Amino acid sequence: MIARLMNANKVYDSPAGKFTALQTCQVDMHAGELLLIIGPSGSGKTTLLSLLGCLINPTEGILEIDGRQTNHLSAKEMAKLRLNTIGFVFQQFNLLAALSAEGNISFPLQMQGLGKAEIKARTRDALDKVNMLEHRKKLPKQLSGGQQQRIAIARALVTDPKIILCDEPTASLDKESVYLVMEELRFLARSGKALAVVTHDPRLAKYADRTIEINNGKVTQL
Ligand SMILES: Nc1ncnc2c1ncn2[C@@H]1O[C@H](COP(=O)(O)OP(=O)(O)OP(=O)(O)O)[C@@H](O)[C@H]1O
């Protein structure tokens, strides 16, 4: 088990009052598994992904990442845990417009303070894994949506994280790119990573090893 959320609640405090976005939530993530998270708009999917990604803390309950409870970690320790253990893939790719494909991929390695030669080798390896080596010098705007998402996947995997979290990774893609991106994500799970993919798209069910559904902040195992 690489990530475990136990009896977790998330209550948002806003000017409109308190809102419980997740209730007594139990979720496990395992190495080698692609976990699909489905549910209607506003049900709590992004909140769950943000918890698993150590972007927010549960209001109650326990989050364990790679055997470590996160409750008492400082913001700096959480940031380090994220950088070294978790990769993120978003709907809108979130690539830096001024950097080439390889510049975007090497960015997290520079944050980790690795040496030049290692950064070069690992960036090349990640580009190769997503079949984008020939496009490495291009800027994001010179790539299709599917190609940009594959660069974003390469950026997520270049630090060799144990966990990869994807928020609607196919929502901005055409049918052919959806297939390529999901095949890529499934390949990553097969290579031993733990993946969680949030989606509205029922067509992605066939790529999942396991599916959970959220309704009004409550998780059901399907
Ligand atoms: N920072 C916040 N403060 C207050 N309420 C919030 C906050 N973030 C989310 N919520 C509320 O929590 C609920 C769950 O939100 P969340 O973004 O997790 O849903 P979702 O399932 O990802 O929705 P969608 O599919 O539309 O992206 C929603 O009702 C939302 O309005």
TrEMBL record:
<keyword id="KW-0547">Nucleotide-binding</keyword>
<dbReference type="GO" id="GO:0005524">
    <property type="term" value="F:ATP binding"/>
</dbReference>
<dbReference type="InterPro" id="IPR017871">
    <property type="entry name" value="ABC_transporter-like_CS"/>
</dbReference>
<dbReference type="GO" id="GO:0098796">
    <property type="term" value="C:membrane protein complex"/>
</dbReference>
<protein>
    <submittedName>
        <fullName>ABC transporter ATP-binding protein</fullName>
    </submittedName>
</protein>
<dbReference type="GO" id="GO:0016887">
    <property type="term" value="F:ATP hydrolysis activity"/>
</dbReference>
<feature type="domain" description="ABC transporter">
    <location>
        <begin position="3"/>
        <end position="222"/>
    </location>
</feature>
<keyword id="KW-0813">Transport</keyword>
<dbReference type="InterPro" id="IPR027417">
    <property type="entry name" value="P-loop_NTPase"/>
</dbReference>
<dbReference type="InterPro" id="IPR015854">
    <property type="entry name" value="ABC_transpr_LolD-like"/>
</dbReference>
<comment type="similarity">
    <text>Belongs to the ABC transporter superfamily. Macrolide exporter (TC 3.A.1.122) family.</text>
</comment>
<dbReference type="InterPro" id="IPR017911">
    <property type="entry name" value="MacB-like_ATP-bd"/>
</dbReference>
<dbReference type="Pfam" id="PF00005">
    <property type="entry name" value="ABC_tran"/>
</dbReference>
<dbReference type="GO" id="GO:0022857">
    <property type="term" value="F:transmembrane transporter activity"/>
</dbReference>
<keyword id="KW-0067">ATP-binding</keyword>
<dbReference type="InterPro" id="IPR003593">
    <property type="entry name" value="AAA+_ATPase"/>
</dbReference>
<dbReference type="InterPro" id="IPR003439">
    <property type="entry name" value="ABC_transporter-like_ATP-bd"/>
</dbReference>
<dbReference type="GO" id="GO:0005886">
    <property type="term" value="C:plasma membrane"/>
</dbReference>
